[in-house]
Design goal:
Blueprint lengths: L3 H27 L14 H6 L6 E6 L5 H14 L5 E6 L7 H8 L12 H7 L8 E4 L2 H4 L2 H13 L7 E6 L11 H6 L3 E5 L8 H13 L4 H4 L7 E2 L22 E5 L9 H14 L28 E6 L13 E5 L3 H8 L4 E2 L17 H7 L4 E3 L1 H6 L9 E3 L6 H10 L3 H7 L6 H12 L5 H23 L3
Parallel strand pairs: 1-2, 1-3, 3-4, 4-5, 5-6, 7-8, 7-10, 8-9, 11-12
Helix pairs in contact: 1-9, 3-18
Keywords: Membrane, Transmembrane, Transmembrane helix
């Protein structure tokens, strides 16, 4: 007769091998799948209102030292929706980094005490019946649902009697972080997991890639995997956009001056090299357009033309890491790293426009969600996008939130056109016909401009918050 450790090891091997078979099936078919992934099916909102609420005590937890701005935005939504019908508790390492606690306090995202994450399982076990924790939200499942943490949660679930089981909600950020996914079948077999990406994509995405993976797995020849019923796993999207009412509003201006690239300073994620090269090229042709003087022999960097009435163009890089700025651009590029959240919001809110600057082939298009969009929306800063980017971040596909450029028009050329109000230079440089759809798209971009009113930005965010509330209602009602 096998000892318990041997049985446990054999069981673990079965799960791991089943998962590897799952991944192999998915990856082997992935190249043959159509580009348009399955759309996400969600219950009608009226169904949630007519169905009894099933989750009343929610624990939002994470062992990860980051992404608190993501899961605390969900806490804020939960608190609004559950104001009269339940309670929310937060388990996380303290203090939150970069003075985020100031944001939590100022916006009243959460009014309770934040508990250590190590207390989560003991609190679950402290009340195994009525009034116990019945929903666990994990802030970064790529970290929070693996190893001993996963096993302890699973044991706590198994220890509960039927009728008092809890469910877990996995906030996910990257479809290609595979290590934790070996544990998904254990929870789907128990009908106790749902997936919650932070961005809704119209094409290939974190959400739709998970959905497709689950559908492929449901057809598996492996009994263990197939009977875990992966096709039944529900997927919703919660966009982490906060209400930042204390922002100092930009002074209205007719001249685009301050653009921002927000995020880590890694060139494999954002094409800083190309942006710098194109800025240098455009400045060499006509520096006055950008508010600078021609470089003289003794000049290393372009100098601001003080004789012009309008402010010079500046490109802000707000993020973390190290980046080398070309010496010619040292008066134009402004680097701000290591900012606290209050400092970040104060600076970001003064920008005219946000540039995603995604590198070609970057994961931010299809397998990993970028927080740049949510942060720009929070600060009422329009985002310069292409049709491809809008399909990748469908929730932001709204003229109140974005400025759309033709793909043939690079970011720097689009900034020049918006700054001057003229696309002639772009058409002449590229020899694109003024009658082409690309030319018409460029003209339309300039005509619509980059300025968005406070009312437009507010109404757009209110739509995001309303959609988030509907998602939370579905989760609380098990729909």
């Amino acid at each position: 007769m096998h000892s318990r450790p041997v049985v446990a090891i054999l069981a673990a091997c079965v799960v791991v091998l089943s998962y590897l078979f799952w991944r192999w099936q998915y990856l082997s078919l992935e190249g043959a799948l159509p580009a348009a992934r399955c759309s996400l099916e969600v219950a009608d909102h009226s169904t949630a209102l007519s169905t009894p609420q099933r989750r009343f005590r929610v624990a939002v937890a994470s062992y990860f030292g980051f992404h608190f701005d993501v899961y605390m935005a969900l806490v804020w939504t939960l608190e609004r929706v559950m104001a009269q019908s339940g309670a929310v508790e937060v388990y996380a390492e303290q203090p939150f980094g970069f003075d985020f606690q100031n944001i939590v306090d100022d916006l009243r995202l959460y009014r309770g005490a934040v508990k250590p994450p190590d207390r989560l399982v003991s609190d679950i076990r402290a009340n195994m019946g009525t009034g116990g924790i019945d929903l666990v939200v994990l802030g970064t499942c790529e970290v929070d649902l693996r190893g001993q943490q996963h096993q302890d949660l699973l044991d706590a679930w198994d220890a509960r009697s039927t009728g008092f089981k809890f469910k877990i909600v996995c906030i996910v950020h990257n479809i290609e972080d595979y290590d934790w996914q070996v544990n998904i079948p254990e929870w789907s077999r128990r009908n106790a997991i749902r997936i919650l990406p932070i961005s809704e994509h119209a094409g290939p995405s974190v959400a739709s890639a998970f959905k497709q993976m689950f559908l492929v797995s449901a057809d598996s020849a492996n009994d263990t995997l197939r009977l875990s019923r992966p096709e039944d796993i529900l997927i919703d999207v919660h966009v982490p956009v906060l209400d930042i009412p204390s922002l100092k509003k930009r002074q209205p201006r007719h001249f685009l001056s301050d653009a921002v690239i927000q995020g880590s300073f890694f060139s494999d994620r954002r094409d800083y090299v190309k942006i710098f090269a194109e800025l240098n090229e455009s400045l060499s042709i006509n520096p006055k357009v950008w508010g600078y003087l021609s470089r003289q022999t003794q000049d290393v960097a372009y100098r601001v033309d003080e004789s012009l009435p309008d402010p010079p163009f500046r490109l802000f890089l707000i993020g973390s890491g190290y980046i080398e700025i070309p010496p010619e651009l040292e008066n134009l590029v402004v680097v701000r790293d290591g900012l606290s959240y209050p400092e970040f919001y104060a600076l970001m809110s003064q920008m005219d426009i946000c540039i995603p600057a995604f590198s070609v082939g970057n994961d931010y298009y299809d397998v990993q969600a970028s927080s740049t969009f949510a942060m720009a929306v929070e600060c009422d800063v329009p985002i310069l996008v292409t049709e491809r980017i809008k399909k990748a971040y469908a929730y932001a596909d709204d003229p109140r939130a974005v400025v759309t450029r033709p793909a043939a028009m690079r970011e720097v050329e689009a900034l020049r056109a918006l700054r001057t109000g003229d696309v002639t230079h772009f058409l002449q440089q590229t020899r694109i016909s003024p009658e082409s759809s690309t030319a018409q798209g460029a003209k339309r971009m300039v005509q619509q401009g980059w300025v968005r009113s406070a009312q437009e930005s507010r109404s757009f965010k209110e739509g995001v918050w309303a959609a988030n509330e509907r998602v939370v209602e579905r989760i609380l009602h098990d729909l």
